[in-house]
Write a structure and sequence with these properties.
Elements (H helix, E strand, L loop, with lengths): L10 H28 L6 H9 L5 E2 H8 L3 H13 L3 E6 L2 E9 L1 H22 L4 H17 L1
Antiparallel strand pairs: 1-3, 2-3
Helix pairs in contact: 2-4, 3-4
Length: 149
């Protein structure tokens, strides 16, 4: 029986793999924390994420999905839940006949304002004592890696 050649990661690839695994853990904890922070408002992290995506301006589902790195199907389901809760509505899109715009309602603006206040207190607490310079470096590295993907 012929022995197969073992493939090994480069030192960079090994560290990158560790970063991937840590990112998965961090994402899981971040989503769980978001769920806890917004539970009393009737939101989950996924609902909050989509509300935040249309805070600046209404967008079609496909654009929300692209901006957030999500699937159109998951954003469609999420926007349906948000509509049922009265946080968004669908309006005609002057740029596309079939792709309706997802628009925050007054209730959606109000709940998002509450979420922002909760998130500010939470992020101030979690980030206390951390170096802004180091956090900015992490952001830049993550952006650089994202571009390569």
């Amino acid at each position: 029986m012929k022995k197969q050649k073992q493939i090994s990661r480069t030192p960079f690839a090994e560290v990158f793999t560790q970063l991937i695994l840590e990112t998965f853990r961090f994402n899981g904890r971040l989503l769980a924390a978001g769920d806890r922070l917004t539970k009393e408002l009737g939101l989950s992290s996924s609902l909050w994420q989509v509300l935040g995506a249309i805070d600046e301006a209404p967008l079609p589902v496909a654009q929300i999905a692209r901006n957030m790195g999500l699937t159109r199907q998951s954003v469609r389901r999420t926007t349906t839940v948000l509509k049922d809760k009265g946080f968004v509505e669908f309006q005609e899109n002057p740029n596309h006949q079939r792709a309706k715009l997802v628009v925050l309602t007054k209730q959606g603006h109000n709940v998002l304002d509450q979420v922002k206040k909760i998130q500010i207190d939470w992020s101030n607490s979690v980030s206390k004592g951390l170096s802004a310079t180091k956090l900015k470096a992490v952001i830049q590295i993550m952006r650089s890696l994202s571009e390569r993907l």
